[in-house]
């Protein structure tokens, strides 16, 4: 049996080399137009600064004009690149469409905006649930739908990118994250389907899965106590996520995890998602069972924490 597996493995890996789709490619950033929603603070601003440091022309869209002005000045002073700003709410399709038309053809679209309210569903108002869906999910449809005609009409025809900012809560459900996770899981379905629709136009879709990040949008003090315990205290810096995101976009990666745990989740939940990397495709195939086992251990630990917490509450 072991000999059979050893003989079969090289054949399987050779087959993978030919069937991995879409094929590997490089998406240039220098001298190209990068348009970022939610770009005035946090991860969006960090992505903008990373792209600017590599010579990109930057456009930022967010709701607050004051914060946009601050972001514009900080990028210009640091990198001496052209920065355009647009104040609009992603829930307003007409406003988004007007901003994108004014910005002009986009080479790299980063759909980064999002709101984050963590609470048990039983205690969370439906108005808050709808707000997260409208911003995180419907807002993403608005931005992409408004940008697609101009992206398809770009003149240089180099590979272009649409990158969606999901979350590790879009890889695995967490206590208190029911509404937020639903919006972030939804982005993956959007990304997988959209990639098939735009591949012929040389547009390549990425989805990023950051963990809890040190940004102004995170209000951990209002999280349920059990959510805080499960998530833990470790956070990544926005600048780290910004660099990982831009590097992933340049490689045309579909799935962009941001730390080791996120990478294990990416392999465990790969399913039938696109994979450009022969190496990652090989890891997903060879270690799928092992990472599924790891996922079960993660769930065992997760439910253990929940049971222990409830037991302590009853005392």
TrEMBL record:
Q: Matching CDD domains, A to Z?
A: KDSR-like_SDR_c
Q: What broad class describes the main subcellular location of this protein?
A: endoplasmic reticulum
Task: Name the Gene3D superfamilies for this protein.
Answer: NAD(P)-binding Rossmann-like Domain (3.40.50.720)
Q: Which Pfam families match?
A: adh_short
What keywords is this UniProt entry annotated with? Answer: Endoplasmic reticulum, Lipid metabolism, NADP, Nucleotide-binding, Oxidoreductase, Sphingolipid metabolism
Q: Name one GO molecular function term.
A: nucleotide binding
GO terms for cellular component: endoplasmic reticulum membrane
For this chain's UniProt record, which GO biological process terms are given?
3-keto-sphinganine metabolic process; sphingolipid biosynthetic process
Q: Does the keyword RNA-binding apply?
A: no
EC supergroup of this enzyme: oxidoreductase
The pathway is: Sphingolipid metabolism; Lipid metabolism; sphingolipid metabolism
Q: What is its EC number?
A: 1.1.1.102
Its annotated compartments are: Endoplasmic reticulum
PANTHER family, per database record? 3-KETODIHYDROSPHINGOSINE REDUCTASE
This protein is called what?
3-dehydrosphinganine reductase
* Source organism (scientific name): Theobroma cacao (Cacao)
């Amino acid at each position: 049996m072991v000999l059979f597996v050893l003989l079969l493995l090289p054949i399987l890996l050779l087959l993978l080399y030919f069937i991995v789709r879409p094929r590997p490619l490089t998406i240039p950033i220098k001298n190209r137009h990068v348009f970022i929603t939610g770009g005035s603070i946090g991860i969006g601003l960090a992505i903008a600064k990373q792209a600017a440091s590599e010579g990109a022309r930057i456009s930022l869209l967010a709701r607050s004009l004051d914060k946009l002005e601050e972001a514009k000045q900080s990028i210009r002073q640091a990198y001496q690149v052209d920065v355009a700003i647009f104040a609009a709410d992603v829930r307003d399709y007409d406003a988004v469409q007007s901003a994108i038309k004014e910005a002009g053809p986009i080479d790299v679209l980063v759909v980064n905006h999002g709101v984050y309210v963590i609470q048990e569903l039983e205690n969370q108002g439906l108005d808050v649930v709808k707000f997260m869906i409208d911003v995180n999910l419907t807002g993403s449809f608005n931005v992409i739908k408004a940008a697609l005609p101009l992206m398809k009409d770009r003149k240089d025809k180099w590979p272009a990118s649409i990158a969606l900012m999901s979350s590790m809560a879009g890889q695995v459900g967490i206590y208190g994250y029911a509404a937020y996770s639903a919006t972030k899981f939804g982005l993956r379905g959007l990304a997988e389907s959209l990639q098939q629709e735009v591949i012929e136009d040389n547009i390549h879709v990425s989805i990023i899965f950051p963990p809890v990040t040190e940004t102004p949008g995170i209000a951990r003090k209002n999280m349920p106590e059990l959510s805080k315990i499960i998530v833990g205290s470790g956070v990544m810096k926005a600048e780290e996520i910004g660099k990982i995101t831009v590097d992933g976009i340049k490689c045309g990666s579909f799935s962009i995890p941001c730390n080791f745990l996120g990478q294990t989740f990416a392999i465990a939940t790969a399913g039938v998602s696109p994979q450009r990397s022969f190496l990652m495709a090989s890891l997903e195939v060879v270690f799928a069972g092992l990472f599924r086992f790891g996922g079960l251990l993660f769930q065992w630990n997760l439910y253990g924490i929940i049971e222990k917490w409830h037991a302590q509450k009853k005392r």
